[in-house]
Amino acid sequence: MRGLILAGGRGSRLAADGVETPKALVEVAGRPQLVNLIETFAGLGCDSITCMVRDGISVDLPAPVPAIVRTCRTPSSLHTLVAGLAVVPPGPVFCAMVDTVMPAADWRRLYRGVTQCLDEGAAAALAVTPFVDDELPLYVTRDAQGFATGILDTPPPAGVSLLVTGGVYGLSPVARRLASVAVASLHRMRAFLRLLVELKAPVATVEVPRIIDLDHKSDLEAAERWLAASAKS
Q1: pLDDT higher for 63 or 206?
Q2: pTM of the predicted model, to two decimals?
Q3: DSSP conformation class of 125
Q4: What is the chain's alpha carbon radius of gyration, rounded to the nearest angstrom?
Q5: What integer pLDDT is reported at residue 63 of this predicted model?
Q6: CA torsion angle for 84, 182, 197, 160 (degrees, to 10)?
Q7: Between the ranges 6-10, 59-63, 137-141, where is the mean pLDDT highest?
Q8: Cα dihedral sign for 14, 44, 116, 4?
């Protein structure tokens, strides 16, 4: 499994809250978030780790952090994904947005689930969570086998389990090729995920209890409290 971390965004919402540090380098649990994710991916067993970081951000990784850092200036996370896939070695990919925070045990559970889904023939696998704390959540409906049946910008009808995507994706070689083609006409990650479902590609889901996205200063504070409590339990 190849690891890919997407950090091509500007972090404008954090900046608006007075956080001057680029999102990839904000400290969570005492270390830059990018370093946290690299070490998490290495511990999970990724064969290689590639980080796509926005041009202009200086990244000085402590040795012996096992990652390749490439800079980009892309208009969306989908474009950053495709730029990263172009340099990631062949094979399935475990991909995360740089602002994704979970305790170590949930990362391990998610990685095992994604790996199993791809091994069993899924084109892609999405991390989903019932924890909704996002300004623009992306909702997912799924069938009894756990495969996505819809990618929605609005909540599903009453009676349907409320699940949202969590910024972590498993991509098979088939999904990698589709992304490289789709980016010519699509401009958002959610549009690509919706396309996969519409094409009837098997898109599996792996559920975790909670994921925090570091969009605002309050998210940083919540992530610190959550990880500290998880470490004690």
Answers
A1: 206
A2: 0.96
A3: E
A4: 17
A5: 74
A6: 70
A7: 137-141
A8: positive
* Amino acid found at 13: R
For 174, phi then psi, to 5°, come to -65, -45
Residue found by looking up tokens 């994604």 in the block: 114
C-alpha to C-alpha distances, 145 to 59, 162, 173, 192, nearest whole angstrom: 42, 16, 22, 22
Which residues make beta-bridge pairs with 93? 2, 171
Torsion of CA 188, 194, 196, 197, to 10 degrees: 170
Distance CA 116, CA 106 (A): 15
The token pair at 113 is 């689930």
45 φ, ψ (degrees, to nearest 5): 110, 15
Burial class (CB in 10 A: 0-12, 13-18, 19+), 231: exposed
Domains defined along the chain, listed by start = 2-232 (3.90.550.10)
Name, in order, each residue with C-beta under 8 angstroms of 223's C-beta and a sequence gap of 6 or more. Answer: 28, 101, 212, 214
Residue 55: burial class (beta carbons within 10 Å; 0-12, 13-18, 19+): exposed
- Of 146, 145, 106, which is closest to residue 126 (Cα–Cα)? 146
Rounded to the nearest integer, the mean pLDDT of the chain is 94
CB 14 within 8 A of CB 214: yes
**Is 80 within 8 Å of 52 (Cβ atoms)?**
yes
Percentage of the chain lying above the pLDDT 70 cut? 100
pLDDT band of residue 62 (cuts 50, 70, 90) is confident
